[in-house]
Structure formats: C-alpha cells, structure tokens
Amino acid sequence: MGQLEVRESGDGAATATGKLKLLTLLLATAALHACGNVDVSWKEEVKLADGQIIIVKRTAEGKALGEIGGPGGWRATRMTLEIDRPELPHKPPAWSERWVPMLFDFDPGTREWFLVATFYTCIDWREMGAPELPYVQYLARDGRWDKVPLDPKLIGRRANLLTGVNARGEPDLVNVEAKERRDRGAGKKFRHVVDAWLNPC
Fold this sequence. Notes:
The chain has four helices and nine strands, in the order H-E-E-E-E-E-E-H-E-E-E-H-H. The protein has one domain. Strands 4-3-2-1-9 form a five-stranded mixed sheet. Strands 5-6-7-8 form a four-stranded antiparallel sheet. It is α+β, with helices and mostly antiparallel strands. It is globular.
C-alpha cells in the first residue's frame, strides 16, 4: 500500500481530498480491527475447593465475528492458563488449548490438578468430539495435560474461572468478587458443570 499524501494549501490547512483519504484509511483500519484478531491477557484470582485463593496467568486468542454495528462476538482459537503464585510443590504445567477453561482445582485424593473446559460455538463442540455433556476434562500428569473422560463427581461443581472473556481486554487482575458478579449473566454450562443440557448444535 502506498503512502497517503496529504497536500496543504497555502495557509497550511489540509485539502478536502487529503482529509477524505485520511478518513477512509481510518475507517478501513477500524473495520479490520473489528473483524480481526482477539488477543487478551490478564491475571485472575482462583478460589480452590479448600478455600485457598491462587493467582493464575491467562491468555485468550481468537477471531472476531460479525460486522461493524452487528452483534459481534468471537471464536476462541487458543486459551492458556498457568499458576502465577504462590509457588506450589505440585505445580502443574501451563495448559494450552482452544477450549474455554471453566474449572481448575487440585484433587487431594489423587494429588492431581484437573481442568474442565467448555466451548463457545457449535463448531467447537463438534471439533471437541461432540461430547454428551458440553465439557472436556484434563489431568496434569508427568509434566503434561492428559485429556480424560469427565469425572462424574465433578457434576454440579461451580465454575471458578472467568468464561465470559471480554474481547476488548480484561483488567490486569480479575478478582473473585468481579467474577461472581459477571457470572450471574452467563449460561448454565458456564456457571457450573451441568448433568444435562439442551444441545443447540
């Protein structure tokens, strides 16, 4: 793309043609941004089942959907989660997948970290393997995350991760109270691990 040339009249004011070209360029840039990539990073308080609160680092990447002035929304292509602090003796590796993590905790019985994830779109559900319930579960084992069948004992567990990520960005730290406020408007499958769902896909 060539450089935009804005000529000036003798009194230093930009010509009407230059202003129109500049306005067109700005609108095109805004359109590309509106229908472009999503790239968000933040830290988040996570309350574990034993009451301990830890801080995790999270990122979300995706593609914006819709048009300018339309309903918007976005499709996740990658989400990551990693414990930031405190330092823990059995710290799991960073988790990285395209799904939406909703529950992250440590099972004292098996001494394993686990993560339950869900999805935003029907395309994601199909690519997830079209599970009967809208989730996949991962266990941290030997320095990696293994995908496993959903543990029935997790049904009914309340989500402890932010699922409604704002594509325009998140605060540097999302605390537990803020998540609880935002959670009230989320769909059931994002608020807790459901035992049945009306599959729209």
